[in-house]
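@channel sequence for tomorrow's demo:
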Amino acid sequence: MKKIVLSAVCVLTLVVTGTMAFGAASPPGQPSTGYGSPQNYICSTLYNGGPIDHNNCIDMGDSAVGTRCWVYIPSVLKNGATAPVVVYLHGFMVIVPPVYYGQIAHLVRQGYIVIFPEYNLGGFDGMFEDTDQYAQLARAVEAVDAALALPDVVQRAELDNIYLASHSNGGMMSLGWIAGGGVPVKAMIMQHPSITMDAIPQFVKDLFLGDMIMLDYAGMAPQITCPVIIIGGVDDTIAKPEHVSAAYRSLTNASTKVHYIYPSDTYGDPDLESDHVAPCQDDGALPGWLLDLMSGMMGMSAFEFNSDDYRVHFAAVDAALAGQNRLTFNRGTWSDGKAVKPVYKIADSTVTAVTVYQHANYDGYMVQLPKGSYTLSALNDRGIKNDDLSSVKVPAGFKATLYRDNNYGGTSKILTTDEDNLAHISFNDVVSSIKIE
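structure tokens (generated this afternoon):
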């Protein structure tokens, strides 16, 4: 009898669980209008009549020495006889265009020319030998210069209208782009820029990365004078919020700069994750064992094509191409009408607001907080952890009230001027909610 009852309970549990999963809200799709939408699609093929993929575009250079480059020229150009150019710099060892196929196809369908340089050394040996970021940058610059010199590109490309988009290690390459001799660009869009190896497990560094010679991004980034849009993820364990904030601060001479961050939203099924591979749409030719290793040891999900690609990453690039250096993102709604958690603007060179910092002396991650009230949940969605703030900048005319507990409870401290170390007022690493007036 006990076995029968137990079996019945198991079956009921499976039915209920399955019903719950079946009934979960689904995420939104591509928006029908605006940035990230198909509203401005004007073609569906490359200039040679072939479909938009890496097998039909121009494939040049040598993968073994890191100079391979793919060039996508659309059959219909954005401005009639010519088109702007988007250079896309991939993540470390994510060297094949299919990983970013959605982004590339979205741009080509709008009539833009896309150049995708494979700046890492190809092949299995290359995975273990490519340990000099200065060499990686030099190869990226060389490959792009060679692509821009192709007759078919010269004939069609607007060489004074080039944009630089990137992901992960490509963001590091972007920070060094101008100092490294890269072609001048109108704007840069950095998606989850990775500027350090600190978050990568030691055994992975020992196995693949060796003694990586890192770019001096802080010394090189000041040569960037164009507008820059940076996007980071709250749950990115590789390009952590504090790393992305450091990249933002290094852009001391950008004409304008803005940093957005978005949280994961697990309300529906499948959920929307803000991890490091969120800007990727496919695993391409990357081996499954490597993806499993990266996913299990670095807190990353499988590479997938979802609504955040359209509504966050594609949208930011679309906005930059339209001459807009800031945008209001629309992450859409789940199938039952509930809004997906929004994208937050957490740093803007044109905005005056109270800014909170992870570490003393205005270091670590930084988040601008406009006037309003912020519970712990609201702080978390902006990348601020509980009991993790150590300094605050308060512009004239603002007042920040810091609370020890969530929902504005517990002891509090009022700041009307800057405080470079909250330990000075016995309030270091204890903040759980904030009010800005």
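heads up for whoever presents: DSSP finds twelve helices and 16 strands in the chain.
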